[in-house]
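Isocitrate lyase and phosphorylmutase
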Amino acid sequence: MNGGSDLMLTKGAVDRHPWKSVLESHAPLILPSAPDALTARLIERAGFPAYQIGGFALAAHMHAVPDIDLEQYGENHAKAQEIITACGLPVLVDGDDGYGDVKNVTRTVRGYEAIGASALFIEDQQPPKRCGHMAGKRVIAAEAMVDKIKAGVAARRNADFFILARTDAAEPNGVDDAIERGHRYLDAGADGIYVEGPTSAEELKEVGAAFKGVPLATSILEGGGKTPWHSPRSMHDFGFSMILYPTSVLFRAVRAIQEALEDLREGHAMDLSRSVDMENFEDVVGMPEWAGIEDRFMGQSEQGRGLVTKIKQKLTG
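Tokens:
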């Protein structure tokens, strides 16, 4: 399915729907994670209305390291800009802990808003932070997180830029503390709450009941997370309007790469029923559009000599 627009070269400049309007029209909002521009393009073509850029997949994709606070704002921001430029969908970006105090939060909000992000979540973990489904997390004082939220809200230039406050307090302090923090964060100006790490259907229901009418998120890490799998419809019935899936695409992609390398090592030809061909791949990366640009703008004396034309001639023999 091709859900992308006709213009795939300058997606960073397009007008995206505000995050609140996306939430209003999709219940629940299913958010796969894109660690690179190609994945974001595929998410768009698959028909999703929005996506996320998460730290778990970014750390693995950029450096082949776990999500344990090894990457920093500058590199994550640069990678996010590449991804956002390639995809016209509204996007929720992982802002970690804001990368420091209220000054860093201010920079983080301004920086991601400037490159076209639609929403940003900031968490209350105490550094060194880690993936929200890993054990041993600690959280900062609720008062310190309130200060960060106020700074972030003040920093945004457009009220449509959605600030989601994430609490990781459920694991170290219990669900009751996570709920209490969530309400304090809403009072500080957050547009929605993200409760990380409920460990049962009962906890999910308790969190959902505590935030009725509030944009509410959590994540499900397929393949090993703390929060048990429930269907998106069940999660919505529990009270969640946003469900993040940080590993669903990543883990499947890793397995596909492993299988391809095993086939190559053993001397097996590529099984096209489990792959794409050149024509399909060219469509994904926008070759027809680049060819159209050559046809439209290349001068008469250069017609037939364009790069894309030559590539096409070579590929078709």
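The chain has two domains: 11-254, 276-316.
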